[in-house]
Write a structure and sequence with these properties.
The chain has about 210 residues and is an alpha+beta fold. The chain has four helices and ten strands, in the order E-H-H-H-H-E-E-E-E-E-E-E-E-E. The strands form three sheets. Strands 5, 6, 8, 9 and 10 form a five-stranded antiparallel sheet that branches.
Length: about 210
């Protein structure tokens, strides 16, 4: 199997250094993340960040009027950074489900900056000419020892035809229409359960 080099879009973890700018940044993440239509099940991620911001704001003000409060402010700042990391991780978990352009928009909708991370991916599924007219060889990335594989094909990516399950990461499908573009995917069954469907690949049958 070959490898492909792509870029994964992620939210940057860089946060402002000064207290006032960090607090403003963190409050922006709360404001934009709360009730954001992209984040349907954030749990307590943004509410906990909001609470941490409130405590941080109080600690900053206390530093200006009271002595001996620097440790409390430092602790409040640390909590904000921890809760920010949780919000960033949540935003990334949603964004990674979408193509790069959509992922970028989702991350930015939460008031976060975007960074691109190079990723070297092994190709999940490779279709090849099957040696005879109308045949295609499908070679999948092996999931685990003893895994089962279900290959499917389609001409419109709406209606899929499933092939019988096999126990090797390779299959020949014949009887396809020459000159037609087919789409292929597979799903592996391991001891841990069913894996997600592979990336869909296309191939013009010869």
């Amino acid at each position: 199997m070959g490898t492909t080099k792509t870029h994964q879009v992620k939210a940057s973890k860089k946060a402002p250094r000064t207290d006032e700018k960090l607090l403003l940044f963190s409050q922006t993440v709360v404001n934009k993340g709360t009730n954001n239509p992209n984040f349907t099940s954030p749990g307590t991620v943004f509410s906990e960040l909001a609470a941490a911001n409130a405590a941080y704001s109080t600690a900053i003000q206390n530093m200006k009027t009271q002595k001996g409060t620097s440790e409390a402010k430092t602790a409040a700042r640390t909590t904000v950074l921890q809760k920010l990391d949780a919000a960033i991780a949540y935003a990334n978990s949603i964004a990674q489900q979408f193509p790069p352009d959509q992922a970028r928009a989702i991350i930015q909708s939460a008031g976060l900056s975007v960074r691109e991370v190079p990723v070297h991916n092994k190709q999940q599924l490779a279709p090849k000419y099957g040696g005879i007219s109308g045949a295609v060889i499908l070679i999948a990335l092996a999931a685990a020892r003893g895994a089962g594989y279900v290959f499917e094909y389609s001409t419109d990516q709406k209606t899929w035809v499933a092939c019988p399950q096999v126990f090797k990461a390779k299959m020949v499908i014949s009887g396809l229409t020459v000159g037609t573009t087919y789409y292929f995917r597979f799903q592996a069954q391991t001891r841990k359960g069913l894996q997600d469907w592979s990336t869909v690949v296309s191939f013009v049958v010869r």
